[in-house]
Amino acid sequence: MKRKTFNNICKICDRIILESNSVERLATNFLHPIRPHPVFLSQYRRLFYPKRHYNLLCYLLYLRSLLSGFQWLLKSIRNSFIRVLTQKSWSKTNLDILIISHLTKNSATKPSKDPYFGNLAAEISGRDLTHSTLLWNQTGLTMKEVEKIFNARDSTIIPLIPSVRNAIKIYFSAIRQSRLLKKNSRSGSRLERRCYHQASFDITRSTALENLAFLLFLENVLELSRPKLVIFTFEGHAWERLAISASKQRNHKIITVGYIHSSIYEAHHSITRWFGTNLEPTSVVTSNDLSTRILTANVKRTGQEIYTVGSVRELFGPLQAGSKNRGKVCLVLPEGIESEMERLFCITLSCALLCPEVQFIWRFHPLINGTNYLEKNKRFHNLPQNIYIAEGDLLSDLSEAKWAVYRGSSSIIQAVSAGVFPISLYIEGDDCIDPLHSLSLSSVVVSNATDLANFLRDNDSRFAKTLEELRFEISANFRNVSWNLMLDKSFPNIPI
């Protein structure tokens, strides 16, 4: 999809949200185009199907949305008979900070450090401020299964299935908005009509209904806890705008802070767009100076504080040990998207057969259950001896690897800072999704297993200078996280 076409879709989606005060529209994921990533673009490509195919697709999407919403209602009925122990009972209090983060399988078993906010909770406690954390369950486990492995004080798993009464209320309010969107799909250009049409299907799916259930839960938490500050991950998802809206409607004095923990570039839309003060965080804090510069370049963001607090990933200085004396080890760093994992794993599998002298380490994203993924993909059942599945932490793999193959994973920044040479896999026809794209220097780009094998076999001593220059540029724009600046700005009268 061309960038101009993507930008036109973004403008239409923004207009659909802003022409109404409907929280149902705000909760619809289709109306939040994140960036021109091949996976995120898949749901927008259907807008350009021929009429005959498009009409058939709409019939199927209509049935899917009905089934998805009905299944969600059935879950609410079933859950009304199940007592979920992971739900903290909230009582009226005056909370200083409310954190909205994510629970992964790793953080569920090791809850001492948040994978997205690092040691924020410890720094808050060090200032004698009170806090509590809401967690999106991204473990791939049911709430009942999470109970068995996770028990962290001051944390609550966000329930996405409300009471039967509230579930029915949410569902029928989504149905009403769906009908309005279908009515609006009768006028305008073909692209506009189809955007309204697709949004009318997405608004009644379980993903949108779960966002509305989150909103209902958050409104209750805000009413009882009365926080002074709400901080959340800011990646461009629908629920983030709902969190901002709920906080500002509850009390306009609540400080809302969105933390962009990964790298962004100009093509990002749902983060960089401007919706007006009621749907924008009070402050945006980033993990690096490059992202900060991209956001501050938006002239509409007047009055919004944007600054860098650093990355929760451990970064290494440019003078620390580089990649000298490392063996022929290639680390594979996919995103937490199965189709992206398959692309990287297939190409590195082919390369492993071409280069038996090179060891490949496959790492799984924290949101992906590696064991389940390998079991259901038969092509990966009999791996060659020079492919290993990572079992330890990332830092141990970075100390061994000489190269790292990636596409869109921001872990490459940590890898380069540790002295690992970056090799970007580019698929023809895709937009650039390289997190190092904004740097003045670039990584080596390959497009297939043969290109990768040729590079790994080559004498790479001539790339040593490029690696060190990349490391210096990363050290100039990225730093390890410190929340002192945010806490000082938000609570100026509380000493460290």
Give structural notes.
- The chain has 496 residues and is of the alpha/beta class.
- The protein has three domains: 1-80 and 161-218, no CATH class; 85-158 and 226-263 and 284-312 and 481-496, Rossmann fold; 329-477, Rossmann fold, CATH 3.40.50.
- 44% of the residues lie in helices and 12% in strands.
- The protein is built from 19 helices and 13 strands.
- A seven-stranded parallel β-sheet has the order 3-2-1-4-5-6-7, sandwiched between helices. The protein has a six-stranded parallel β-sheet with strand order 10-9-8-11-12-13, sandwiched between helices.
- Strand 6, helix 12 and strand 7 form a beta-alpha-beta unit.
- Helix 8 packs antiparallel against helix 9 (190-202).
- The longest helix is centred in the N-terminal third of the chain and has 29 residues, at 51-79.
- The protein is globular.
- The N and C termini lie far apart (50 Å).
- 42% of the residues are buried.
- Residues 83-87 have low confidence and may be disordered.
Features:
19 helices; Rossmann fold; globular; 496 residues; alpha/beta; 13 strands
Spatial gap, N to C terminus: 50 Å
Please, how many helices?
Answer: 19
CATH class annotation of the largest domain: Alpha Beta
Q: How much is the average pLDDT?
A: 87
Strand content: 5-15%
Largest sheet data: 7 strands, parallel
| Total discrete domains | 3
Q: Using DSSP, what is the number of strands?
A: 13
* Quaternary structure: single chain
Strand order of the largest sheet: 3-2-1-4-5-6-7
Amount of helix: 40-55%
Apparent shape: globular
The CATH architecture classification of the largest domain is 3-Layer(aba) Sandwich
CATH level 3 topology of the largest domain: Rossmann fold
- Tell me the radius of gyration: 23 Å
Query: Which structural class is indicated by helix and strand composition?
Result: alpha/beta
Low-confidence stretches: 83-87
